[in-house]
Design goal:
By secondary structure, this protein is mainly alpha-helical. The protein has 2 domains: 149 residues, no CATH class; 81 residues, no CATH class. Helices cover 66% and strands 2% of the residues. The chain is built from 13 helices and 2 strands, in the order ααββααααααααααα. Strands 1-2 form a two-stranded antiparallel ribbon. Strand 1 and strand 2 form a beta hairpin. Helix 2 packs parallel to helix 4 and helix 8 packs antiparallel against helix 9. The longest helix is centred in the N-terminal third of the chain and has 27 residues.
């Protein structure tokens, strides 16, 4: 009996580098967050070079640049390509884990603003997974559909994805590019209060509804999002404003030092 390779059996033949990239990304992120959470608890020091705090984002950028340059210049195949995929996955995890640092230009790793790094990680994994399963952008898979029908489908799906993004739902907007039904649902739902859509089209009453749904601490969406972020990345410390109030009041403040 002839054995069928696992990649062919699962329909993933030729995508081994992407599989390795995703695996390296997830493993690196898990180990990085495990270490930073332990370091936060036990007060371990951070890596430094010449007295300068060395963020793991710096290592990630070096890995990404190196793997990209080698891929463009050499275009290796086989094992070489797979090693580059692993290196890129490690570098991407290091870099996106500190996405909040290059977004806010300050160390907010354990601040509430640091939750944006978790969002970046989720979007990165989601995008790679969609490419892995071979989902076609805008839901177009070829076939016998005429040009006019295909054009209309693409136009509608692009519109739904754009509306979703304008409503401030970045993850769902990216997913809508590959899964049009997600864009349909997200596009008709309430926009986030700080989104462009809210700014352009919402009055005070509807914006208040959006603030209650997406920002009020008792909203189930806010609580679910906070719980998910805490599970993946660890609970943040107090916001910087609250820390300053604690210091003024003479109370013990919580450290917000990054990893």
């Amino acid at each position: 009996m002839e054995l069928i390779p696992y990649g062919h059996a699962m329909g993933l033949a030729g995508r081994e580098p992407l599989i390795l990239l995703i695996a390296a990304f997830l493993l690196t992120f898990a180990l990085t967050r495990l270490y930073t959470r332990l370091a936060r608890i036990h007060g371990w020091g951070s890596a430094s070079a010449g007295g300068i705090h060395l963020h793991h984002m710096v290592v990630g950028i070096v890995f990404i640049l190196f793997s990209g340059i080698v891929e463009i210049a050499v275009r290796p195949t086989g094992t070489g390509r797979e090693l580059l995929a692993i290196l890129f996955g490690v570098g991407a995890a290091f870099t996106l884990d500190e996405f909040a640092l290059w977004l806010y230009l300050r160390d907010v790793y354990w601040c509430p603003e640091g939750r944006s790094s978790i969002d970046a990680i989720v979007m990165g994994v989601l995008f790679a997974a969609l490419l892995l399963v071979g989902t076609s952008p805008f839901g177009i898979h070829g076939g016998n559909a005429g040009r006019l029908i295909a054009f209309v489908m693409i136009a509608v799906n692009v519109s739904l994805a754009v509306v979703t993004l304008l409503k401030g739902k970045l993850t769902l907007g990216m997913l809508a590019v590959f899964v049009p039904l997600v864009g349909l649902v997200a596009a008709v739902r309430l926009a986030k209060p700080r989104s462009l859509w809210s700014k352009w089209f919402y009055g005070e009453r509807k914006r208040a509804r959006a603030e209650h749904r997406f920002e009020h601490e008792h909203s189930w969406i806010v609580r679910l999002h906070a719980w998910f972020d805490d599970v993946l990345g660890g609970a943040p410390s107090l916001p910087m404003t609250e820390l300053r109030m604690d210091v003024v009041a003479g109370r013990l403040s919580v450290r917000n030092d990054g990893p």
